[in-house]
Amino acid sequence: MRKLVWDNSFRRAFKGRTRNDRNLQDRIFDTLDELVADPFQPKLKTHKLKGRLDGLWACSVDYDCRIIFFFASDPQEDEDAIVLVDIGSHDEVY
Q: What is the pLDDT of residues 61-94, one digit of tens each?
């Protein structure tokens, strides 16, 4: 099983992005549920990033909303983690 870890930068970006949009917030939570279940399901369009974001991954919430994350392991709990780093439009996060 995987767990989600919300980095502080993700928390700030999430609050700013969803402040006045409850519908977007619901879509993000649905995407996060799917990400934990299977990060590589086709609907998420998960892909590895290159360049200055090398080592990170991205998935799509909708047409113009991306979540940036990386995979980590937690040896103490014998569990894999998905660390959420940023969220925003294509131009904001890339």
A: 999 999 999 999 876 777 889 999 999 998 888 8
Structure tokens at 47: 């892909």
Q: Compute φ and ψ for 75, nearest 5 degrees.
A: -65, -25
The CATH number assigned to the domain with range 2-84 reads 3.30.2310.20
Four-CA torsion 34, 39, 43, 48, nearest 10 degrees: 140
Q: H helices within 19-94, ranges in order?
A: 22-37, 90-93
How much is the pTM? 0.91
Cβ neighbours for 41, distance < 8 A, ≥ 6 positions apart: 34
Pair 32, 47: CB distance under 8 Å:
no
